[in-house]
Amino acid sequence: MLKALSKTLLSGFFAASTLMVAHAADKVVFQLDWLPGGDKSAIFICIQQGFCADAGLEITIESGRGSSEAITKLATGVSDIGISGIGALMAARANEDVPVTAVMSLFNKGPHAFYTVKGTMETIEDVKGKTVATSPFTESNVYLPLVLMDLGMEESDITLNKVDPGALGPMLMTGATDVIIAWMTDLTRYTTQAAAAGKELAVFPWSDAGLELYSASLVASDAFLAERPEVARRFIAAYRRSLEFMRDNPAGAAESVIAMVPELSAENVEGQVKDTIGLIFNEVTEKDGLGVFTPERLQATWKRVAAAQGLDEAGLDPETLVDRSFVPES
């Protein structure tokens, strides 16, 4: 399945690139942090809706298997700009001083949440004493101890099981676990599974427990920003336009993804688009602006990352890993 998906991606990207060569467009390699889907729709919108072409850009998309790999590919020049969790960038900068910089906030709220069948928990504090299933590799596991601490608990207050990601939904619906840890970007998928099982879900975002931080961000190779700053500005402006299209036209956003990755389910992709919008456009966006990193929230994010990963908070000034000059003013 993954091989077929990769083949389709490559053929779709090649076709998109071929159409733009005649215009002598500037080439940009965009780095995904994971497999394509509705939560990644902005780059597909940029290509399919012509926003990148309008900006004189020819886009190639590089697949990814996590934020750490995405940062490595950007740092080594494989890719120019892409998506990564800013927490992963903070940890990488603290440990290795990688030449990668965050240029735009995407998720200004963390996507992490507890999912359970309605009636199992009334409040997020009710996770105490519950059996909780999680994927072995999700970033959520890094922050779980902090969330429990905020709730006045320790990990010993829950029974945590790490299982295959594909097993999370079935386990919850069959009662094999009380709670699962999943991202808000998958709300529609799990809600659909619950409905098929005749159940309703209750979802408790970790932001309800005080976990307020930046998450997915647009990050770029320092070499790209230094050597082709105007190309970077044009790309970021086109990408921002794509995010606004995503907000205003979820169905069109999903169609843009399916046009290049037809193996995906249009219904699932559109659901994921809708689930993702709230992590990008919300009360934080209304207050601070789209794509903005505020010093206060950035520092709070680093404080959480440092605590979660056992890093010296004084060892990194988070202001050194962002460049706000590339985001167009609202």
Commentary on this structure:
With 330 residues, the chain is an alpha/beta fold. The protein has 2 domains: 2-109 and 213-326, Periplasmic binding protein-like II (D-Maltodextrin-Binding Protein, domain 2, 3-Layer(aba) Sandwich); 112-209, 3-Layer(aba) Sandwich (D-Maltodextrin-Binding Protein, domain 2). The chain contains 14 helices and 10 strands. The chain has helices at residues 2-21, 41-48, 51-54, 67-75, 86-96, 140-150, 168-174, 187-196, 222-227, 229-248, 250-260, 266-280, 283-288, 295-309, and strands at 26-31, 57-62, 81-85, 100-105, 112-117, 131-134, 159-162, 179-183, 201-205, 216-221. The strands form 2 sheets. A 5-stranded mixed sheet has the order 2-1-3-10-4, sandwiched between helices. A 5-stranded mixed sheet has the order 7-6-8-5-9, with helices on one face. Strand 6, helix 6 (140-150) and strand 7 form a beta-alpha-beta unit. Helix 10 (229-248) packs across helix 11. The longest helix is centred in the N-terminal third of the chain and has 20 residues, at 2-21.
Shape category: globular
What integer value in Å does the Rg equal?
20 Å
Query: What is the distance, rounded to the nearest whole angstrom, between the alpha carbons of the first and last residues?
Result: 41 Å
Under the CATH scheme, which architecture of the largest domain would be assigned? 3-Layer(aba) Sandwich
Strand content: 15-25%
| Cross-sheet strand order for the largest sheet | 2-1-3-10-4
Task: Count the DSSP helices.
Answer: 14
Which fold does the CATH topology of the largest domain refer to?
Answer: D-Maltodextrin-Binding Protein, domain 2
CATH superfamily of the largest domain: Periplasmic binding protein-like II
SSE pattern, N- to C-terminal: HEHHEHEHEEEHEHEHEEHHHHHH
Helix content: 40-55%
Largest sheet: 5 strands, mixed
**Overall pLDDT confidence:** 92
Structural class category: alpha/beta
| Sequence stretches where pLDDT stays below 50 over 5 or more residues | 1-22
